[in-house]
Specification:
Blueprint lengths: L1 H5 L1 H27 L4 H24 L7 H32 L4 H24 L1 H4 L1 H39 L2
Helix pairs in contact: 2-3, 2-5, 3-4, 4-5
């Protein structure tokens, strides 16, 4: 039972990732094989539609995060899409190269591609929807601000001690 609890997110992600992959493959097949859209464009359209689906199911069912307000959801969506741009790049290059090099059916190649891309997407999604990790950027920003504040305080303290050591004597000697 501990194994199931420990790997619940991954198992649920695999289920919804499988559904997203099916959507991706169907959209690709319709776009490229039925409507004659170029390989790259058909792959990108399929990627976009499947990732919109994936964003919502990953957020709600896999990592169980709140929908929140539109601004929060938009920000998460942007992180999600940006992280998925790396998988799109791989997806497009893999599809173009594999279809040109291997004599296999483009749907079989797309299925293999979706397995590899799915693993990458799981770990990037885990990072996005895990608020402890997402707040790292904010923590780094706060740390840098604290460092600047400490440097400013150090500088002010040095100036104060410099004034006490040299400025006070200068004031005394100038008043004579």
């Amino acid at each position: 039972m501990n194994f199931i609890r420990k790997h619940r997110n991954f198992a649920v992600y695999c289920l919804f990732g499988f559904l997203a992959s099916i959507i991706n493959i169907i959209i690709f097949d319709l776009s490229h094989n039925n409507f004659g859209i170029t390989l790259w464009l058909a792959n990108t359209i399929a990627w976009f539609i499947s990732n919109v689906f994936s964003f919502f199911v990953t957020k709600i069912f896999v990592f169980k995060t709140e929908m929140g307000n539109y601004k929060k959801m938009f920000n998460e969506g942007m992180y999600f899409i940006v992280s998925r741009l790396f998988s799109l790049l791989f997806d497009d290059v893999f599809m173009i190269v594999a279809v040109l090099i291997f004599p296999f059916n483009n749907i079989l190649i797309k299925a293999i591609d979706q397995l590899v891309v799915g693993l990458f997407n799981y770990y990037s999604s885990k990072w996005i929807f895990n608020y402890n990790n997402r707040n790292i950027i904010e923590k780094i920003r706060q740390f840098k601000l604290a460092q600047k504040d400490n440097q400013k305080k150090e500088s002010e303290a040095k100036e104060f001690w410099f004034f006490l050591k040299f400025g006070y004597k200068k004031i005394e000697s100038s008043s004579i």
